[in-house]
């Protein structure tokens, strides 16, 4: 371990993860407070409806979302290293344009499909209007240009600040809604205002950093001209969009699908279990967000980024074991205290889902390594297989085992995800000598 930490890149990953972790710890605690107030302040059915609406808008935004932050890191980081300022501006402009168009189309689609969801979950006319209002957040939820800018400029501290402010506002509003008995309307308005403010703050941070670094006029949307100057841009954004749309939407759609199959009460229980599972996987998520920008500074043909990935995976796996053991010990009393005895069934789901924590955490470097190697199409294929397997399990198992079946399906889906991505990662490592720096430009060639 002493040798590991002598590696400057490894120390940078840990440092940036610590920045994000400071915000995520606060976010997790405040998120639990908000969910606790919502669970106690409403009936299980209305709590489930609130969760389904929130999950629905996230699923729509995830499905349409271009992973522009990855595009900025993949194309913008080499431009910064080589001090090619015009290329960096083109990367930002192209990313911004994609966010605007995809976000607007996603919002329209979400509003059009909402009446169908309302009929399925039993949303009345008054609450339907509030759900329709919530759909206007989709363009902001579907944009990741600010994240890419701040990660590329190494301002993980600002990301941590933004990640702490949103749950703080949600928690404060949820406490007010609980004590003043504002009901469903109070909670959904609180979540709407908090998400709106936090998203706009992200954009402000990014614009300020660009000005501070003298990247003037960079934050202007563009399509045709920037794309012409960025060879391989469309190939990268479409491929990563499809793979992440499948991965992200499947997770967001899980709660919606459980609500459709088993009803809003089961959806609420599944959401609580998912919240705990996501919290246990936070270390891997933080390492991933700092790992990808760092390896893009390295030569993919050398062993260094691959060794860095292995060390990061082992570290994440060790943390995962400790976190899983902690959840086993404190999970049941925590749920009883935070949400109440009526939601205690969620602990049974958590016990099943914890089996996938260590596996998913150890597998986090695979996506970044495949993107670095220009294998985004391969990753897309693997994600498609894993997601299709998971959705099939999620449709079948709840019919036979109820809500606990959804937990088994989620466990299987996480295992499929890591296993299917491991195969091409090992292949890319064995053939790393054929890779070159900034393989994103020649991704299409490398995929053949």
Overview of the molecule:
- It is found in: Cell membrane.
- Keywords: Cell membrane, Membrane, Transmembrane, Transmembrane helix.
- It is a multi-pass membrane protein.
- The protein is mostly helical and 448 residues long.
- The protein has one domain (2-442).
- 82% of the residues lie in helices and 0% in strands.
- The protein has 21 helices and no strands.
- It has helices at 2-5, 8-41, 44-64, 68-81, 85-121, 125-134, 138-141, 145-152, 156-179, 183-212, 224-229, 233-262, 264-280, 282-295, 304-338, 346-353, 357-362, 365-372, 376-401, 403-430, 443-447.
- Helix 4 (68-81) packs antiparallel against helix 5.
- The longest helix is centred in the N-terminal third of the chain and has 37 residues, at 85-121.
- Mean pLDDT is 81; it is low at 437-448.
Annotate the secondary structure layout.
Blueprint: H1 2-5, H2 8-41, H3 44-64, H4 68-81, H5 85-121, H6 125-134, H7 138-141, H8 145-152, H9 156-179, H10 183-212, H11 224-229, H12 233-262, H13 264-280, H14 282-295, H15 304-338, H16 346-353, H17 357-362, H18 365-372, H19 376-401, H20 403-430, H21 443-447
Helix pairs in contact: 2-9, 2-14, 3-5, 3-12, 3-13, 4-5, 4-8, 4-12, 6-10, 8-10, 9-10, 12-13, 12-19, 13-16, 14-15, 14-18, 15-16, 16-20, 18-20, 19-20
Protein name: Lipopolysaccharide biosynthesis protein
Subcellular location: Cell membrane
Pfam family, one: Polysacc_synt
């Amino acid at each position: 371990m002493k040798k590991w930490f002598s590696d400057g890149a490894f120390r940078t990953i840990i440092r940036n993860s610590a920045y994000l972790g400071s915000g995520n710890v606060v976010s997790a605690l405040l998120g639990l407070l908000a969910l606790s107030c919502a669970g106690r302040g409403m009936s299980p059915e209305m709590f489930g409806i609130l969760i389904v609406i929130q999950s629905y808008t996230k699923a729509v935004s995830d499905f349409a979302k271009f992973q522009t932050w990855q595009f900025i890191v993949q194309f913008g980081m080499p431009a910064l290293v080589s001090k090619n300022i015009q290329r960096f501006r083109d990367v930002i402009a192209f990313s911004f344009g994609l966010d605007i168009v995809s976000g607007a189309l996603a919002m329209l689609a979400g509003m059009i499909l909402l009446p169908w969801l309302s009929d399925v979950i039993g949303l009345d006319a008054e609450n339907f209007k509030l759900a329709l209002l919530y759909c206007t957040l989709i363009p902001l939820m579907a944009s990741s240009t600010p994240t890419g800018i701040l990660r590329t400029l190494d301002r993980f501290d600002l990301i941590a600040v933004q990640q702490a402010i949103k749950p703080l506002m949600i928690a404060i509003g949820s406490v007010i809604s609980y004590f003043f008995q504002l009901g469903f309307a109070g909670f959904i308005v609180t979540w709407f205002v908090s998400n709106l403010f936090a998203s706009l703050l992200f954009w402000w941070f990014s614009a300020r950093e660009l000005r501070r670094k003298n990247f003037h006029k960079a934050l202007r949307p563009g399509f045709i001209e920037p794309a012409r100057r960025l060879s391989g841009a469309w190939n990268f954004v479409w491929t990563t969009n499809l793979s992440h749309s499948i991965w992200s939407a499947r997770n967001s759609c899980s709660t919606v699908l459980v609500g459709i199959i088993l009803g809003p009460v089961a959806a609420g229980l599944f959401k609580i279990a998912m919240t705990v599972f996501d919290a246990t996987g936070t270390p891997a998520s933080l390492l991933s967000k700092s790992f990808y920008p760092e390896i893009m500074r390295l030569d993919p043909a050398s062993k260094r980024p691959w060794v860095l990935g292995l060390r990061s995976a082992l570290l994440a796996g060790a943390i995962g074991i400790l976190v899983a053991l902690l959840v086993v010990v404190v999970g049941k009393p925590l749920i009883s205290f935070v949400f109440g005895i009526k939601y205690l069934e969620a602990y049974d789901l958590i016990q099943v889902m914890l089996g996938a924590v260590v596996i998913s955490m150890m597998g986090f470097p695979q996506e970044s390594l495949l993107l670095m190697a220009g294998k985004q199409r391969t990753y897309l294929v693997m994600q498609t297989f894993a997601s299709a397997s998971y959705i099939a399990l999620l449709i079948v198992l709840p019919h036979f085992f109820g809500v606990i079946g959804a937990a088994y399906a989620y466990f299987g889906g996480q295992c499929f995800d890591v296993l299917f991505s491991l195969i091409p990662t090992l292949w890319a490592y064995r053939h790393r000598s054929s890779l070159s720096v900034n393989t994103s430009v020649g991704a299409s060639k490398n995929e053949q």
